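Example 3.
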Amino acid sequence: MTSLSSPPGDLAPPPEMRDTPLNWIKNNLFTPWYNGLITVVIALILGYFFYTFLTWSFTEAKWDVIPRNIQLFNVGRYPRSQYWRLWVLLGLICTLSGLSWGAIARNVAKLYSRNILIGIGCAVVVCLLFPVPLPNRLLLVGMTGLVVGFSWVGQQAGRKNPKFGIWVSSTWLLLFFIALWLIGGGLFLRPVSSNEWQGLMLTVLTAVVSIVICFPLGVLLALGRRSPLPIFKGLSIAYIELVRGVPLITLLFMGQVMIPLFLPDGMRPDRVIRAIVGLTLFSAAYLAENVRGGLQAVPRGQAEAASALGLSTPLVVILIVLPQALKAVIPAIVGQFISLFQDTTLLAIVGLVELLGISNSVLANPQFLGRFSEVYLYNGLLFWVFCYAMSASSRWVEKKVNTEH
Amino acid sequence: MTSQQPSTMSDQSANTSPEAVIVAKDVHKWYASNKFHVLRGVSLTVNKGEVVVVMGPSGSGKSTFIRTFNALEDYQKGTITIDGIELSHDLKNIDAIRREVGMVFQQFNLFPHLSVLQNVTLAPIWVRRKKKAEAEAIAMQLLEKVGILEQAKKFPGQLSGGQQQRVAIARALAMQPKIMLFDEPTSALDPEMVREVLDTMRSLAKEGMTMVCVTHEVGFAREVADRVVLMADGLLVEEATPKEFFNNPQHERSKQFLSQIL
């Protein structure tokens, strides 16, 4: 009764639910007895796999295949004399990432919290252990330094100028073209043919370009599919259903083999561009369906209330419906991006030398015959790092835009 | 009065006051999907500064009727003139009318991804092309007026239903409309929150706002309405002062309706 009569000001705090680790294990893993049995069996199985993997990786595995070919894995046969251009590009990306981080965290009192410092430490260790020549490792540490240093600059600038965020976003767009210029050359730089764009660089390039283009395309298709105008609606449905009925590999082969047949010699677009077009057109159809799901989740009253305020239909869509629709399907959209990233491996089949393609040519080298496990594990690790980064940032964005509490 | 048809009564009031801001004449509507004849020739005139309460059983078409005033519903026959502009299918025309007509919905329909302040400033900034600072100053005044100034930075999901509905009223007022439409504004509220919303509407009526309210709040209708209108089965059955309507209903359908809600 005392708790009922106490004023709302001093409500009782929740009881402490502390547990010793030993108790926790006993309660969660060994009660009742058959749970204990399952725990032991699973622990044995996991332990066995872990043990075999570790013994393999320390005794049998010949990891030297990775450091000896690291430049092939990273940039393939990109001309050595032009590596500096890629370093400049990486430096620009790191600088801009730092500025963006600072701009986003402009209202955070302590930019370098304990967790962030641990993260920076880990990044430095990874850079130092990355199997490239020593000067390059130091350069990589320098890149980490760029991110950290410019995050501070970004935070200061973001606090002073509220428009700074917009400025940084538009610079990202600009960087996109600078990147193509730095990689491809032309305009004072030695041109590097797209046949020499290879390795991880090509994987990331095709994935990023496809993601950036397929997103607006997918949104437009989703809107088109819900349009009251029959022409837009019909064309969108036809496109989406046609593309979804064809496997990606077919589209890619069509891009590489069929398009050149139809176009005159001079007009043949670049192989990389054809690959990007294939990936983009394919992903846009799937993305459109994801976005349509989000559009359907927005209650009709939202659009009605916005129209009743006098907003024109385009404004209703851009300001009210789309933000809510996209917010609802962030996980699905990022899932689509992740699978697009992984689908870039199919480019190896149509003859582009991206990460998997270069790995296959490394494995074809008589010196490294039969090192499948090492090379593919390395590929897997790289893919995991990129995909995990995407899904982590998607969770972060979701948290950031959540306005319901 | 009793022998007169409702439509002629509205014509009369249109003649006595030259400042009719809503003139609906013989409005018919069929639903596109099932050809249901939901409005069967409804006429109503609302004068400037008047508060008209529309009552009636559910399914009588009262919400549909007031939603035709800002073209959220279209109609197939008849004419509706809002503030001298006849509603047509011309989009520019519709936008012009919507700028002058504020609407408050049963389900609030606040924009959940925008803060309370952004909800209120959105339309003034994008439709009236106001400067952000100016729009925010007006919004703060309105939020103070409806009593939720301290919640301006919160999101709609963090407010109670009554607070949300008051934000919705402020959002509609921010466009400085000449007419306010209320579509069952208190029906989705918990009982203890009905009063705060009705109080806001009451003070709005006192300031001389032209209001058309679909509501079941008899107390509000008695106290605030200049006229009460009863709709049933897509027809306007009775139109009278609240005193006459509640104490001495003329039409059989009105008597039946009142016996159920009083």
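The first strand of chain B starts at residue 20 and ends at 30. Strands of chain B lie at 20-30, 37-47, 51-55, 77-82, 85-86, 101-104, 179-183, 210-214, 227-232, 235-240.
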